[in-house]
Amino acid sequence: MPTIYLKNENTLFFYYHEEIYQYSFDNFSEIIEEIKNDHKIKNCKISLILDFTKFYISFFNASDKTDKEEKESLAFFLQSEIEDYTEKNFITKQFYLDHPQRKSMIFAVKREYINNISMLLKKHNFLLEECKIDVLSVYEYFKDQNVSILNSGSDLSFILEIKDQKIREFKIITMNEEDIHNIDSFDFIKEYGNLIILDSDIKNIETVFSGNALYTSPNFYENNFFKFNKINIKPFFSYFIVFLVYFFINGLISYNKFETENKKIKQEIDLLQEELLNMKNNKENSDYSKELNELNEIIKSMRYQNHYKFFSFLIKEADKNIGYTKIIYDNNFWTVEGEADKFENIENFEEKLNKYAKNIELNFIKSENSSLIFQYKIGEILWN
Predict the structure, then answer these.
(1) What is the pTM of this model?
(2) Is residue 152 within 8 Å of 182, Cβ to Cβ?
(3) Is the CATH number 3.30.1360.100 carried by domain 236-378?
(4) Least confident of 228-242, 259-273, 291-305
(5) In contact, 186 and 171? CB cutoff 8 Å
(6) Are 67 and 148 spatial neighbours (Cβ–Cβ below 8 Å)?
(7) What tens digit of pLDDT does each residue of 323-370 get?
(8) Which of 154, 200, 232, 318 has the fewest beta carbons closer than 10 A?
(9) Domain with CATH 3.30.420.380 in the chain
(10) How far is residue 114's CA from residue 96's CA, in Å, rounded to a whole number?
């Protein structure tokens, strides 16, 4: 499977057809489009490996506890360790080092971050199939050896010690790739005898990709944005506003009236154009500024029907699963902000919007309480 290893904010490695390609970037969406064009990929499923710095990582010991007690203890532990931690805001996986003794490593990553990447990939026809962490990819590659590994990063690095196929130590250290050249100057390095150093050289990156192919779990990508234990009722206020807008517009404007007026406007344009042409033939040097201004006003008035149809589209799409809290039109751009209960509902909304709108830009998706808050910036709207 094609695989992206997002090494840091500006570097990624792409594994495709048993070859590894390095890309530097400032804009993630743009570099994905470049990868797609470079390798002539139309659409495909893709695997994602994330750098360890995107995760909260810790050892957790729940010896002498029942399953229920372990779960409760872990929840309390994470809430005390991670600010604003909830199961809805974070994807959390437990990797057991010694299952009978209930010793494990905990990995937690923001759900919003994973799903934003998933949505950006999907915009370029890359369907995210799985998401893993480089720490466990390195472990899987070396787990049959008694060895210590130093994996260097742009700002932070980690040391992983493996013995008897188990992770004995995991430590994050303040060391970057430039420090690797002077590694002997770090006293703590002497504590590790058989130390393997992995930097960003392609041969070392190949280790991460190879290890990634050796395991399937834990997988940090979940298709559902939230798992609901209770039915959540969306705030009524946002829908109340939408219905007020709907009845207000319907009270002032009749759709049939707009259709009739639109035909009338088109006839007026044809007449004006014919008059202007005749005037030009009769008087070569005549001033047509008045007529042209009149024509521009008529054309401008036609655009308001697009606004009405856009409102009708938004109202039609609003239901118990998706609603709007902000609708702004400024400088020929619409800003639509709303909330949904599932990631799939936002995707469906964007897919329908793509049929009519130009220059759609997703400003953000973020989780808030039990909802997803999204905002789109939308350019010109064209209706059939």
Answers:
(1) 0.63
(2) no
(3) yes
(4) 228-242
(5) no
(6) no
(7) 888 888 877 788 889 888 888 888 888 888 887 776 788 888 887 777
(8) 232
(9) 3-212
(10) 23
50 conformational bin, left if phi > 0, alpha if psi -120 to 50, beta if neither: beta
Rounded to an integer, what distance in angstroms lies between the CA atom of residue 6 and that of residue 126? 15
Query: How far is CA 384 from each of CA 258, 299, 333, 381, rounded to the nearest angstrom?
Result: 15, 17, 19, 10
Residue at 264: amino acid letter: K
Run of H or E including 71? helix 67-81
CA dihedral 167, 112, 219, 91 (to 10 degrees): 60
Helix (H, G, I), strand (E, B) or coil at 378: strand
The 3-state DSSP class for residue 54 equals: helix
Q: Which two tokens stand for residue 313?
A: 């589209």
For residue 363, give both structure tokens.
Answer: 């400003």
CATH 3.30.1360.100 placement within the chain: 236-378
> For 3-212, CATH number?
3.30.420.380
- SS3 of 25, please? coil
